[in-house]
DNA sequence: GTTGGTCGTCAACGTGGTTGTCCAATAACA
DNA sequence: TGTTATTGGACAACCACGTTGACGACCAAC
């Protein structure tokens, strides 16, 4: 396989997973969730986070993180709450609806992976995952894919 | 590996390849080339293409394809030429500079793949590529990554 | 109590998509 | 052949999502 084809197929495989995830999320009552939302929800986590923290975790500016929070809040998946110890900070917390999306995403991703594993074979899947771990030295999530495309 | 981690690592591996490619392209005299440009150049191909054809190949509107051509033309990588048989059509052709970028990209991608192969091992690499071929039923290129993110 | 750093937000901008509209040119057909 | 339908390219307005710069509010430290 050529290097270019390798890159292209890695992206294709990723995209197929994410597309299938969002198709299924839409079918299960969350049609407005987009890829960036899932990443952000995960980055906020159970303990909540401020917009600035979220920006660091996502690898984007605090302003961009703030806009993402706006979108998520408009959909009812997160809420901004006051920090009792610091009036400047606003803690973003995941709502029950947001937790439902996270729970569903995990479940659906597992199902999708199982489907792929059935298609390509258990051994081959294990080898691929091992290779991926080696390939991707994987630091921070960096979901600024849109900005990355135009960098 | 969880399904979510699989998706994430697929993207990470892809992104690492493309980032490294563009770092190297920049070092070799093409700092302004962005990922979308490479895809577009490849889609135009040796025989040239019209903006509308390019849009179909890239999975975007003809207007978006036209803008991409504008950018590529401003960088000197393509040129719009008249179609002698149809005065409406303008054939976009790759210039020598554009061909140089394509040639360099192929070469660099091969080197990057070889590096990865050295890291993960020949056998494991072969298994991963086989798995990727199975995973990604890969029809048309579909490089509308930016649009896809915001869909 | 002033001074400096941090948090969140607003504003302006860039990039790269989208749809809608329009004109010029070609193709199809009565 | 003349009229009508379709096609290719461009323009405009708009949207999504990132950026930087600036600013007010607040906290902390000397």
Automatic annotation (TrEMBL), chains A, B:
Write the lineage as a comma-separated list. Answer: Bacteria, Bacillati, Actinomycetota, Actinomycetes, Pseudonocardiales
Record-linked Pfam families: MarR_2
Q: Which organism is it from?
A: Actinomycetospora endophytica
Q: Which SMART domains match?
A: HTH_MARR
Signal peptide location: none
> What positions does the domain HTH marR-type occupy?
3-140
Q: By what name is this protein known? A: MarR family transcriptional regulator
**What Gene3D superfamilies does the record tag this protein with?**
Winged helix-like DNA-binding domain superfamily/Winged helix DNA-binding domain
Domain of life, source organism: Bacteria
Which PROSITE patterns does this one have? HTH_MARR_2 (PS50995)
What InterPro entries would the database entry show? HTH_MarR-typ, MarR/SlyA-like, WH-like_DNA-bd_sf, WH_DNA-bd_sf
